[in-house]
Design goal:
The complex is a heterodimer of chains A (259) and B (245). Chain A is mainly α. Helices cover 82% and strands 0% of the residues of chain A. In chain A, helix 3 crosses helix 9 (205-214) and helix 9 packs antiparallel against helix 10. The longest helix of chain A has 39 residues, at 159-197. The radius of gyration of chain A is 23 Å and the shape is flat. Chain B is 37% helix and 24% strand. Chain B is α/β, with parallel strands linked by helices and 245 residues long. Chain B is globular, with a radius of gyration of 18 Å. In chain B, strands 5-6-7-3-8-9 form a 6-stranded mixed sheet, with helices on both faces. A 3-stranded antiparallel sheet of chain B has the order 2-1-4, with helices on one face. Chain B has helices at 41-49, 85-95, 100-113, 129-141, 159-176, 187-193, 227-244; strands at 2-11, 15-25, 30-34, 56-61, 70-73, 147-151, 179-184, 196-201, 206-212. In chain B, helix 2 (85-95) packs across helix 3, helix 2 runs parallel beside helix 4 (129-141) and helix 6 crosses helix 7 (227-244). In chain B, strand 1 and strand 2 form a beta hairpin. The chains are: A mainly alpha (259), B alpha/beta (245). Chain A binds chain B through residues 145, 147-148, 150-157, 161, 165-166, 169, 172, 249-252, 255, and chain B through 49-51, 67-68, 70, 72, 74, 76, 78, 80-83, 91-92, 94-96, 123-125, 143.
Chain lengths: 259, 245
């Protein structure tokens, strides 16, 4: 157990040490690659503004993520109840998915973001996070054990009972797996949206990165990047913990096997 | 109890799975359907359960079983992996809208009946194949149905577990006077369990022979090794071979 945590920590520290040493040894200019110590310093100096920006980005990401999960699950449930609706709407969802978010971002900014830029960011992050939930949840609802469905039919179960007692629990592992993907995508979507929306529109981490780049404050840029990675990692681990909590008692993926 | 008259079933593409099937099952009778794989015995069982519509012919119950009046056990245990043994057994009662306290008590009663009272809170993945099958049987019995339909329930189990479950099943059925339709591909199992063995041929599926088994409902200790048992198995094997040619 100690080795599982200690090994990566040692590797990361060693890499940082080499980075620090090489920057000094080769005298790399700070506007090309700052040393880890300089990045730490920049993080410390700008902590308040960077944390505020991280909070802006996180808030939009989480809101988009929650709305994507709610929307994806709701639409997947509708699909599971009506094949014609699924056939009519699924292609639209695919079109939404395959269109690069950057390409439609200017349109979204014009349509919903003129008076309220955050709304545009939210919508773009939502589009990025929505499809994995819809797609996996649709698959999960359909993957219910046919034997169980037969059994429920035999006992005259209502559609509601089949949905809540068989289909939704069957789809849970699929949903949790989709949420791990969507959590990251919501963050990526927010960052992309912040880039497109440009300065003045938002105060998130992407804006800090752009601003720092323009001023050649590369250490601060790295500090913002570091926070961004930390956000992504935190989101992933939270969702992983949630998955573990909900599946550990019954799902094969969570069974610890003796070697 | 159940009368099936001139029943036929063909699937899309014109494949005839069953043709001219006639079957009668008296109240409290244990009837086995035996045949090579693909002879339509599972299809016949699914039609009897009401999970499939016949193409032609009729099914008549002398007393139409209401909701939950037929207990079914499939080849696989078909348990909900996210629910413990007790909740799995409770499922049919939950569908019927029974209150939690009542269905809890009834599920425990059924788990005791199949010898799993100590495993009520265990999840299916922690149970052995035989125990999972016992949970499935408890679930089929929980609505106290007069009819039980079993589709090769013990096919995947080892011989000792299978014999143990056979004895338990016979005892449960005799005590509750259940009418049972039992699909199997094992001649010995059919002889051991049944009052009557129906032998099916394949393509199209039809009932070819009927062999009544004359032995006490609760089998005597050495029945499995008696000359009488061997003779029945011999008869059935001969009938099966005749179906194949």
């Amino acid at each position: 157990m100690a080795a599982r945590i200690l090994t990566p920590v040692i590797v990361v520290l060693a890499a940082l040490g080499v980075w620090e040493a090489l920057v000094h040894l080769w005298q790399v200019p700070a506007f090309v690659l700052p040393a880890p110590s300089a990045i730490g310093q920049a993080l410390y100096d700008n902590l308040a503004s960077l944390l505020f920006s991280a909070w802006m980005t996180l808030r939009i990401s989480l809101t988009a993520f929650v709305l994507a999960v709610i929307g994806g699950v709701a639409l997947a449930v509708v699909f599971s109840q009506s094949r014609p609706v699924e056939m009519a709407l699924f292609p639209l969802a695919v079109i939404l998915q395959v269109t690069p978010i950057v390409a439609i971002a200017p349109l979204i900014v014009i349509w919903v973001g003129i008076d309220n830029p955050n709304r545009a960011l939210l919508l773009m992050a939502w589009i990025a996070a929505f499809f994995p939930v819809l797609s996996n949840m649709t698959l999960g609802l359909r993957a219910a054990d046919h034997g169980l469905l037969d059994l429920y039919r035999l006992y005259g179960a209502t559609r509601w009972q089949v949905l809540t007692q068989i289909r939704l629990p069957s789809a849970l592992p699929y949903l949790l797996s989709a949420m791990k993907i969507s959590g990251g995508l919501a963050l990526i979507g927010t960052v992309v949206a912040e880039f497109v929306a440009g300065s003045g529109a938002s105060m998130g981490l992407a804006w800090r990165i752009m601003e720092s780049g323009n001023r050649l404050q590369i250490a601060r840029m790295f500090a913002a990047l570091l926070l961004l990675s930390l956000l992504g990692i935190t989101i992933f681990f939270c969702l992983n913990a949630l998955e573990n909590l909900l599946l550990r008692r019954w799902h094969e993926s969570r069974v610890l096997r003796e070697p | 109890m159940l009368t099936i008259t001139d029943l036929g079933k063909s699937f899309s593409g014109g494949v005839a799975a069953l043709e001219h099937v006639n079957l009668y099952m008296a109240r409290g009778e244990f009837v086995s359907l035996l045949g090579p794989s693909g002879c339509g015995k599972s299809t016949l069982l699914r039609i009897a359960a009401g999970l499939m519509e016949p193409t032609t012919g009729r099914i008549a119950w002398t007393e139409k079983p209401e909701r939950g009046g037929i207990g079914v056990v499939f080849q696989e245990p078909t348990l909900m992996p996210w629910a413990n043994a007790r909740k799995n057994v409770e499922a049919p009662l939950r569908i019927a809208g029974m209150a939690a306290a009542g269905r809890h008590a009834r599920a425990m009663e059924m788990l005791t009946l199949v010898g799993l009272e100590g495993f009520a809170e265990a999840y299916p993945r922690t149970l052995s194949g035989g125990m999972k099958m016992r949970v499935a049987i408890a679930r089929a019995l929980v609505t106290r149905p007069p009819v039980l339909l079993l589709d090769e329930p013990f096919a995947a189990l080892d011989e000792i577990t299978r014999q143990q479950l056979n004895d338990d099943l016979l005892e449960i059925c005799a005590r509750a006077r259940l009418s049972v339709l039992f699909v199997t591909h094992s001649a010995a199992e059919a002889v051991y369990l049944s009052d009557r063995v129906l032998i099916m041929r394949a393509r199209p599926g039809a009932i070819q022979h009927e062999i009544p088994i004359h032995a006490p409902a609760l089998r005597a200790e050495g029945f499995r090794h008696s000359p009488q048992f061997a003779a029945y198995c011999g008869d059935i094997s001969a009938a099966l071979r005749a179906c194949l040619n």
